[in-house]
Amino acid sequence: MHPGADERVLGYLGRGLSMELSAVQLYTTQARLVAGWGLDEPAKRFRDEAQEEMGHVERIISRMLALGVAPNASQLRPVKLGRDLRELLLYDQAFEDELVSLYTDAATHCARNGNHEGRLFFEELLEEEKQHSRELAHWLAQLEQLGAGSGVRGASF
Ligand SMILES: [Fe+2]
Ligand SMILES: [Fe+2]
Q1: What number is the average pLDDT over the span 89-105?
Q2: Fewest CB atoms less than 10 Å from the CB: which of 53, 91, 128, 145?
Q3: What is the 25 CA–ligand 2 centroid distance (Å)?
Q4: pTM for the predicted model, two decimal places
Q5: Is 70 helix (H, G, I), strand (E, B) or coil?
Q6: Counting ligands in written order, which one lies closest to the CA of residue 95?
Q7: Where are the domains positioned within the chain?
């Protein structure tokens, strides 16, 4: 096994993989859900988001293979449905923040152990999840401004 693959790193990768796969399931579901509400533009944003998360899945799988371990995600988080766009976005933000904290812990662990490659790997994911979280915050703020966040299903943002 690769020297950069200590048990904790493998644990972070495994949890990351489960969460990224869950994110694909989450955003794909939300895309279909809001499309059903007639919200075409949000549906497209969720579809694009699902694709980005799929990119993260691929990167984690590649990393695991490079470290000589088989990807082993075993638990997908069930999707929590919402009644309107705002509810979905609030849930997504909490989800992204969980990823931010996971990758922060992983990068910190690697930094402490002189695992430079591992630190860079997790830091890149960390920056992208932070960006997702910021985008969601921005989207939510836009919704609030337009007054579409009050639970009106089908309201465009
Ligand atoms: Fe991700
Ligand atoms: Fe994300």
Answers
A1: 97
A2: 145
A3: 12
A4: 0.91
A5: coil
A6: 2
A7: 7-145
